[in-house]
Each structure stands twice: as C-alpha cells, then as structure tokens.
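User: Just a sanity check before I run the rest of the batch. Below are the structure tokens for the first item. I only need the designed sequence back.
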C-alpha cells in the first residue's frame, strides 16, 4: 500500500470529513461500543518513521516535564444497524481500541503525520498507523436558544485563539481500563462501561469547561463523528440542552474549573456560528455541520 502524502503539502486546518452523521440524535441506548485490540494502531512498517514517535516524545518531554502519557480510546470505525420488526430505531456501534498520548503526539501531531497514512478509501485503513484518539465535543443549547462557544486561550498548544465547542476526550482511566487484558466473561461489561463513558465524559467536559452544574444539562444525544483533515483527528459530537439562559451560564463560566484553557465564552446564534466557522479547527467545524444537519432534520419533522 502506498503512503497517502508527504508532510510538506498544505492542508486547510478548517477542512473536515463527516465520518458518521445521526441528525435524529441518538440516546445512550442507541449507541454501543466494541472495545477490542483489533482496533488498536498497527505499527508502521518503516522502522525509521516508527522510531520518530519516541524521538518526538523525548524532545517534547525535555521542554515540558509535566507531559503525561495517559491512555486514550482509539477510533477504529463504526457499524450502523436498524432495529428489526417494529423497532426501526437507528443503532450505532463504535469500534474502539486503546492508544496513548505519546503515540498521538508522535503520529497525528507529528510534522511527518502524512507519512503515517495509507492510500485507501477505507477510513480505518487510511489511519491504521496513527494513534487517532477519539475526542469529543458538545453543542450546548441554552434555554434562550443560544449555542455555547469557547475562544481558546493563546497559551494552549493546539489552535490558540480559535473558536471551539466544549469538549475533550473520553478517558479510559475513569472506568478502570488500562489495557485489553481481561477475561472473556468481562467483555460485555467493559463494552457497556466504555459506551457509558462516551456520554458521561462529555457532560464532565461541559461542567469543567463552562462551569454549569450537571443538573442543568440534558442527557446528551449523539449526533456523529467528524474528522479534521489536518492531522486526521476524529471527534464524537453530542447535542445537549441546558436549562439555564445565556446570562446565567456566563456567571457560572467565571468560576469554571478548566477556565485557563479558554479566554471567553460566547452565546452564539446560528448567524454568529457561521461567522465563527472560519476560525474553528476542522473537527469543530465538522461538529457545527453535524448540528446544522440535526437542526434541518428537526425543521422537517415539525
């Protein structure tokens, strides 16, 4: 298989691809997970390229001794199913493996990231040599019909000063997952726990980054997965209703736990969002596209 490109050709940081789109919004019972080592990253056959992962991590660690190599869930694809008989509900099964921050920095975020790609129309083959940890993002709508958007701090490593939706990553350590080593009897239980963490983690991120109480947030609805073309970075997006108005949210934001990552919170209309889109990283611009598909779907059904 051929490599899909070289590091010197420019990629628009705002460009994205929608990997999964669920405009109807899926509840936790409609989303399942298969967590398996079959979805783990495959090392690149070029040993010299593979060795750059450790080299880049060593360089980064020397500059920043607080770097932590935490585990992350790796996005490995999905399966769509419809219920049989009278149940025609859509179900999505996410295929997830395990990776870590070190491999993410050394593959997806490397200046050589394109050399890790494989020429293929199949997304899981294209990215089989990258860490591709699954991020998450939330489209949070206030009771006065505004969407919450953060402006990133100029001190953050990725996309300083850009507009983003609140989000982060689902965390393996939150559910006690550190490896694939478990008995077969526990497989179903672990799959269920990982699936729940997809929904629990996005509520956690909103609470930490915006400062609102969890009790003000609805159960998240899964609306899809977008991937930033730059660094092939995937993120799952969720729609959440907030029972507070935008002024009340601003008051909570002033004391948010993760406030240092952002400098300002905006309560945006759809017109505002369109104007902000040119300064959104691709994965978040993809999240906006998923929200617009959901909004269009809701209009058709009213």
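Assistant: Here's the designed sequence for the first item:
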């Amino acid at each position: 298989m051929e490599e899909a490109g070289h590091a010197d050709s420019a990629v628009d940081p705002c460009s994205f691809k929608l990997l999964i789109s669920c405009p109807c919004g899926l509840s936790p019972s409609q989303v399942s997970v298969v967590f398996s080592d079959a979805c783990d990253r495959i090392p690149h056959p070029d040993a010299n390229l593979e060795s750059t992962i450790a080299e880049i991590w060593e360089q980064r660690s020397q500059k920043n001794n607080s770097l932590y190599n935490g585990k992350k869930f790796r996005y490995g694809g999905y399966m769509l199913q419809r219920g049989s008989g009278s149940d025609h509900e859509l179900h999505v099964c996410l295929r997830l493996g395990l990776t870590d921050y070190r491999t993410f920095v050394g593959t997806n975020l490397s200046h050589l990231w394109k050399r890790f790609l494989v020429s293929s129309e199949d997304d899981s083959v294209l990215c089989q040599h990258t860490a591709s940890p699954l991020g998450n993002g939330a489209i949070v709508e206030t009771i006065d019909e505004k969407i919450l958007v953060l402006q990133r701090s100029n001190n953050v490593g990725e996309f300083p000063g850009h507009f983003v939706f609140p989000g982060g990553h689902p965390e393996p350590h939150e559910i006690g997952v550190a490896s694939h080593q478990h008995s077969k009897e526990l497989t179903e239980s672990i799959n269920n726990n990982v699936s729940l963490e997809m929904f629990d983690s996005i509520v956690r991120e909103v609470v930490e980054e915006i400062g609102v109480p969890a009790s003000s947030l609805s159960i998240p609805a899964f609306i899809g997965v977008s991937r930033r073309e730059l660094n092939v970075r995937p993120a799952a997006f969720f729609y959440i209703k907030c029972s507070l108005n935008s002024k009340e949210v601003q008051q909570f934001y002033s004391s948010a736990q993760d406030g240092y990552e952002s400098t300002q919170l905006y309560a945006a209309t759809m017109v505002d969002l369109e104007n902000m889109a040119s300064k959104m990283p691709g994965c978040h611009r993809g999240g906006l596209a998923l929200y617009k598909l959901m909004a269009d779907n809701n209009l058709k059904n009213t």
